[in-house]
Amino acid sequence: MMQAIEAEVSKQGVIKFCESIRLETGYRAIVTLVEPIKSPDDLLPSDEDLEIAYRNASKETDSTWECVVADGLSDEAW
After folding, report:
1. What is the mean pLDDT of the segment spanning 2-24?
2. Closest CA to 9 of 40, 46, 49, 36
3. Biggest CA pair distance of the chain
4. b/e map of 5-32 (b: 16 or more CB within 10 Å)?
5. Alpha-carbon distances of 37 from 29, 30, 43, 50, 67, rounded to whole Å
6. In this structure, are residues 5 and 21 in contact, taking their beta carbons and an 8 Å threshold?
7. What's the pLDDT tens digit per position in 42-72?
8. What is the value of pTM for the model shown?
9. Average confidence score pLDDT of the chain
């Protein structure tokens, strides 16, 4: 299976994926260098991307935690 995944390669050769990925098994990869990064600011996500990520994260809820009314301890040591 061939799939294109965007990533950045540092000067030291460290590969950082632009989005998180989950794989069921290990894969071999062929890396094609497309264009150099022009400035260190290109490595940072834009303000708009950060805002979208923050809004999406704030919408996430975990029903386990949302329904908790106590700390779950059966005996308080006061």
Report:
1. 85
2. 36
3. 63
4. eeeeeeeeeeeeeeeeeeeeeeeeeeee
5. 21, 19, 8, 20, 46
6. yes
7. 667 778 888 888 888 888 777 666 665 666 6
8. 0.41
9. 78
CB proximity list for 45: less than 8 A, separation 6 or greater: 53
Q: Which amino acid is at 6?
A: E
Q: What angle do CA 64, 50, 3 make, to 5 degrees?
A: 85
Q: Which residue has the tokens 């994926």?
A: 17
All structural domains of the chain with their residue ranges: 7-66
SS3 (DSSP) at 8: strand
- For the chain, the residue count is 78
pLDDT at 10: 82
What tokens does 26 get?
A: 């290990």
